[in-house]
Design brief:
Blueprint lengths: L4 H38 L5 H37 L5 H23 L5 H7 L1 H10 L1 H16 L7 E4 L4 E8 L3 E6 L4 E5 H6 L2 E4 L6 E8 L5 H13 L11 E7 L4 E8 L6 H19 L25 H9 L9 H10 L1 E5 L4 E3 L7 E7 L2 E7 L2 E8 L4 E2 L1 H6 L6 E4 L3 E7 H10 L1 H18 L9 H15 L3
Antiparallel strand pairs: 1-2, 1-5, 2-3, 3-4, 6-8, 7-8, 9-16, 10-15, 11-14, 11-16, 12-13, 12-15
Helix pairs in contact: 1-2, 2-3, 8-9, 10-11, 13-14, 14-15
The structure holds adenosine-3',5'-cyclic-monophosphate (CMP).
Length: 480
């Protein structure tokens, strides 16, 4: 069984400290003997004291390095993690180590070699400066870019980033004084120089942020958008790693050549797993489509051949339309043939939830029967819509303008996906000609609805009101 890396490091550190402590003790304890030995063997040149001081300085350097490492782990590994919940960036730790070590070393150097002027060595050597500058040009560039990246803190270890025009995408594993290390979704490690990263655009998906993804799909034009949106939304919100905090959004992005193009936008709990989650979302959509009888669009060309309907014969959904009209109260007195004629004249329209079927104030020369779905009748009261009635399957509306020739009295809005059957003026006139009683029952209903339209009115229907409507209808349709 392999030990964790941190334990190995700790053991190594302990061994190195023990060895350094032992060597230091030995050097200090036996330095007079060593001095004696060296002067015996080499004489006065080089000076044995200088050699021993150099050895002492090296050992002090090693001990100082170990001490700085321990201090570093204590401050950044432990205290920083306890306070902030994550480890300090490697770059910060390295800078701390370099500065602290340099300070310790210079103090030790100064105490053993007080005559050597280190400052003059650095400042007076122009050649040294040029060589140093050229050799470290890239390294220093990376170093300072790294510092500026750390100062801005645009991302942290664990965030998903996409860097540059080559769009290297992956999870940040480390930020050192030289480079950013990311692990791609193919489990490769990409190292990007800090100076390169500082010049490139970087897209960040922070770990603590609610990041979103968009997945696309197409359906046939015959599939209902309201149903598709509902089915996909429910299927996606259940998938693993899809955040429960925000409901996924499903919307039409284009009416394309090959079908209706949709996008589903969802938010992830763990953005680093977006590839798997995208795939799961697509899979859920497929199964949901299968269950709901929806169809993915594929490149198709639909050839429409227009067939003239034979007079008196209803095509396709005709049976259902006849059944629907026969179940409408006001058409109850009609014979089967008359209902058939009406059904023949009826034109079906589908409205999306929230769409307006009829707008108040507009002229109208047809009435409607709700075939599937629900609508509400709204009037404008002090600038706000007030619902006066909700009409269900088998109810009718739009008769007021049709029968009186006046403008529409109210807005009628689809509450869900709704199919209505529109019947025009000519068809209704035929029906009235053969069923004069129909006009009377209609005039009662219309009088009742008019009462409903009156704002906060408690009054009952005045008998002369329906009589007035009756004569208006007769006049309008030229009935005796
Ligand atoms: P019309 O005026 O042509 O257009 C709006 C329609 O809303 C109207 O015909 C009626 O069919 C319907 N309507 C108006 N008021 C009511 C009501 N109180 N109850 C039910 N339907 C109504």
């Amino acid at each position: 069984m392999s030990r964790p890396r941190s334990t190995n490091n700790f053991l190594l550190f302990c061994v190195a400290t023990a060895i350094a402590a032992l060597l230091t003790y030995l050097l200090w304890h036996f330095s007079p003997n060593l001095n004696y030995l060296l002067s015996e063997r080499m004489g006065a040149h080089p000076d044995p004291d200088t050699i021993i001081n150099v050895l002492k300085l090296i050992l002090i350097g090693v001990v100082a390095y170990l001490f700085v490492r321990a201090l570093n782990s204590l401050i950044f590994g432990l205290t920083f993690r306890l306070r902030n919940g994550f480890e300090a960036p490697t770059l910060v730790r390295n800078v701390f180590t370099i500065i602290a070590f340099t300070i310790f070393f210079l103090i030790a150097f100064n105490s053993y070699f007080p005559d050597v002027n280190l400052g003059a060595l650095f400042t007076t050597s122009a050649i040294f400066g040029v060589i140093f500058g050229l050799a470290l040009q890239d390294t220093l560039g990376n170093f300072f870019s790294g510092i500026s990246l750390q100062a801005d803190r645009p991302f942290q270890v664990g965030d998903v980033i996409t860097v540059g025009v080559l769009r290297h995408t992956g999870v940040v594993e480390g930020i050192t004084w030289r480079a950013i290390k990311i692990r791609t979704f193919q489990n490769h490690v990409v190292i990007i120089n800090n100076s390169t990263a500082a010049k490139e655009p970087i897209e960040v998906g922070p770990r603590e942020n609610l990041n979103a993804r968009i997945v696309y799909f197409n359906t046939l034009y015959t599939d209902s958008p309201a149903k598709t949106i509902h089915v996909v939304r429910e299927a996606v919100r259940e998938a693993d790693n899809v955040s429960q905090r925000v409901t996924p959004i499903v919307r039409i992005r284009n009416l394309g050549d090959n079908g209706v193009e949709y996008e589903v936008k969802y938010w992830l709990d763990d953005y680093a797993k977006y590839n798997d989650t995208d795939a799961l979302v697509r899979q859920r959509i497929w199964y949901a489509f299968r269950r709901a009888g929806l169809n993915f669009a594929f490149p198709t060309r639909t050839l429409h051949v227009e067939r003239k309907p034979k007079p008196g014969v209803l095509e396709g959904d005709g049976g259902a339309i006849i059944e629907r009209l026969a179940a409408v109260d006001i058409f109850a007195p009609l014979s089967a043939d008359e209902t058939g004629v009406l059904a023949q004249a009826a034109v079906s329209h589908v409205f999306a939830p929230g769409e307006t079927v009829i707008r108040a104030g507009e002229p109208g020369s047809s009435m409607f029967v709700v075939h599937n779905g629900r609508v509400c009748v709204q009037i404008n009261e002090n600038g706000r819509p007030r619902t006066v009635a909700t009409l269900n399957e088998g109810d009718f509306f739009g008769e007021m303008a049709l029968f009186t020739g006046e403008p529409r009295t109210a807005n009628v809005v689809a509450l869900e996906e709704t199919e209505v059957l529109e019947i025009g003026h000519a068809a209704m006139k035929t029906v009235f000609d053969t069923n004069p009683d129909l006009v009377e029952s209609l005039s009662f209903i219309m009088a009742e609805r008019r009462q409903g339209l009156a704002v906060k009115s408690d009054a009952s229907i005045a008998p002369d009101e329906s009589a007035g409507i009756l004569s208006a209808i007769k006049r309008f349709f030229g009935l005796s």
